Amino acid sequence: MEEQTALIAGEGSLPVEIASRLTDRGRPPVVYSIRENVGALSRYALDVVNITKPDFGFTIKDMRKHGVKNVIMAGTVSKTLIFKPSLFDLTTQRFLAGLLFRDDHSLLGAIVDFLEKEGFHVLSYRDIVPDLLAKSGHIAGRRPTKEELDDAEYGFSICKAVVPLSFGQTVITHKRSVVAVEAMEGTDATLLRAGSLCKGGVVAKMMRLDQDERYDIPTVGPETLYHMAQAKLTCLALHAGWTLIVEPEKFRKAAEEKNISVIGVEVCRSL
């Protein structure tokens, strides 16, 4: 008998894609939804449990009730939640109080450790959706210009410096100047902030080189390109093999429509 899997699902289409693939394999997950709307996820779930606020105590107890052995975490969750302790149950409050650092890497890593100490096996979803990983070279839209390639190279050099500090997964450069760096606000807000500062620019998106692939794999989709077009950013450079492209057909169509160049860049995984 297959071990039961739970999918802790944030916003975005990635959790839907993962749930769909698990269902196709005959292993529909129990979905713990921290989304505003469950939407299409319900089609691929053995059961849906809505979590209206961070509640580790309830979630652990309910996963055991459902016989869950494996856990996958996917989707976007607002990082500003850590500033709202009144929303948390006592177990979650104690968990947060025990953290020395609360950056993305430390927080997500601690959650994985917490789940595994509770007896669950946290799985990577990278192998569930390997076809969504960005390839090296030209991916979609028009071919990049020489200036865009130069800015992409410069952008990744900045990412390599700041991502180990647990911010800067997305960096926007223009004419070899740093326009914006992603922090807690998320990618979309960073793109729009860059657009308020200049017209034109390259978006570099990179996974931390020592990142645990069970969580926080960079993800882009059609909405990324729509926000780039709104901000008048012209090229998207992705960490090849370590960035997911959701809704790939819509993504390619959006790149063509918005005249945005999308490329995959090889980045050495060794530090």
TrEMBL record:
Keyword NAD: no
All residue ranges annotated as the LpxI C-terminal domain in the record: 136-263
Lineage: Bacteria, Thermotogati, Synergistota, Synergistia, Synergistales
Nucleotidyltransferase found in the keyword field: yes
Residue ranges constituting the LpxI N-terminal domain according to the UniProt record: 5-132
One protein family per Pfam: LpxI_C
InterPro entries in the cross-refs: LpxI, LpxI_C, LpxI_C_sf, LpxI_N
GO function term, MF aspect, one: nucleotidyltransferase activity
Protein name: Phosphatidate cytidylyltransferase
Keywords recorded for this protein, A-Z: Nucleotidyltransferase, Transferase
